[in-house]
């Protein structure tokens, strides 16, 4: 279901992937610095989760400014929270690369404003912990403030997320967290000798099983 979400004086394009049965849990997904909501990883994950009973809303927000992207993500959260069509108890925020930074930033901001438990967790796909070859400056400040459960799905050969550095940040986080490493995957989740679909299946299954642990979904 395509929707346009008001954002300032314009609209954000978004798509709902709706499960057959009414869902009480949802996930909001967004893309990285390049691309849009039709990035293959997001389309695949949204379809997979919807087929397993989780409502997904993915949206496009262009722009390389993290504050702008965070503001847009926050607007989408509010939109879904007030939706009459889909009355959800809670949502998980998810993003790929820069989108996961925006998701973490939203959770940090909202946790300081209200504690109504609408946001249940955070999924970071290819979290960009640092710029390529610039490991001295970590983008970890929002992660350290997050208190809800966090799942990281990263490639072990991601040039923007050194394995040891992410494990170090995770050990400092106060939130319950899990890291799933996709063996030999780069930042784009490409793995030599594996098809893209094969890698997506691994990612989707990991995200869903983690979600199920965190919301105790009845097994569909």
The general outline is globular
| SSE class | alpha/beta
Catalogue the unreliable spans: none
Return the string of H and E elements. EEEHEHEHEEHEH
Domain count: the total is: 1
Give the biggest sheet. 8 strands, mixed
Q: Distance between termini? A: 22 Å
CATH architecture tag: 3-Layer(aba) Sandwich
Text of the CATH class: Alpha Beta
CATH topology: Rossmann fold
Percent of residues in beta strands?
Answer: 15-25%
Mean pLDDT: 93
CATH superfamily: Alpha/Beta hydrolase fold, catalytic domain
Q: In percent, how helical is the residue content?
A: 25-40%
Number of strands: 8
Rg, alpha carbons: 16 Å
Quaternary structure type: single chain
Continuous helix count: 5
Blueprint (SSEs and pairs):
Elements: E1 2-7, E2 10-17, E3 25-30, H1 40-51, E4 55-59, H2 66-81, E5 90-96, H3 98-113, E6 119-125, E7 150-155, H4 163-172, E8 177-182, H5 196-215
Parallel strand pairs: 3-4, 3-5, 5-6, 6-7, 7-8
Antiparallel strand pairs: 1-2, 2-4
Helix pairs in contact: 1-5, 2-3
Domain KANL3/Tex30 alpha/beta hydrolase-like: 27-210
Pfam families: Abhydrolase_11
Organism: Steatornis caripensis (Oilbird)
Main traits of this protein?
about 220 residues, alpha/beta, Rossmann fold, eight-stranded mixed beta sheet, about 35% helix, KANL3/Tex30_Abhydrolase, AB_hydrolase_fold, NSL3/Tex30
